Amino acid sequence: MPLEPLKIKTMLLTAAREIADHVDILTDLDCALGDGDHGTTMKKLTQVMFDQIEPWNETTNLKDGLESLTDALEDVSGGSAGPLFAAFVYGMAEAAESDAPTTDDFIRQILLGAYDEFFTTSKAVIGDKTMMDAIAPATEVIRNSTTDMKTTLEEAARAARSGSDNTAGMLAKYGRARYIGDRCLGHKDPGSVTFAYFYEGLATGYFV
């Protein structure tokens, strides 16, 4: 059954707001593992999301809107977070069918597409202490769930949060954190925490 036409807009804006509201936490996490700029970068990226998505209306072609958002995200400086976030959104755009109605199956389709493009770009796997530790378990829930989308998104958000929490016990394989060895133990990966907030925001936005 078709959903409200701007449901994806609401979900993405709510996800961006959830991240933006926690940039100080993301900065603190990155100070322990990297150069401390992840929170600042995510503040820039979420502002781009607000600027790009707010103008969407009932006549907006979602595929075109997501492609434009990808281009804008790619222009944000600040390490690997920008290109990786852009890859995630580009995967959504690639999976979106022009003029397709917004349905639960459509939401599932674009979120699975986001994972595929992200994996192709990052090459990271679960256990590498990266964004993937949140994205992969959330995607598994979305891919395999046989329940309603409300429950699916809630379970995906919990899986992302659990995956992010697990990064505290991992050694880093990517980024600056890989140079500090055992000292990264006990600290969660800020990128994975970002995507835990993202999926939590998607779940919240689905109900708005």
Characterize the structure shown.
This protein is mainly alpha-helical and 208 residues long. It has a single domain, classed as Alpha Horseshoe (Serine Threonine Protein Phosphatase 5, Tetratricopeptide repeat). It is built from 9 helices and no strands. The longest helix has 19 residues, at 104-122. The radius of gyration is 16 Å and the shape is globular. It starts with 6 loop residues before the first helix and ends with a helix.
Strand content: under 5%
The CATH first-level class comes to: Mainly Alpha
Any guess at the CATH architecture? Alpha Horseshoe
Question: How much helicity do the residues have?
Answer: 55-70%
Number of strands: 0
Count of helices? 9
Global geometry = globular
CATH homology superfamily: DhaL domain
Distance from N terminus to C terminus (CA atoms, Å) equals 17 Å
Our Rg estimate from Cα atoms comes to 16 Å
The helix/strand series, from N terminus to C terminus, equals HHHHHHHHH
- Count of structural domains: 1
Question: How many strands, what sense, and barrel or not for the largest sheet?
Answer: none
Low-confidence stretches: none
Could you tell me the mean pLDDT?
92
Class inferred from helices and paired strands: mainly alpha
What is the CATH topology classification name? Answer: Serine Threonine Protein Phosphatase 5, Tetratricopeptide repeat
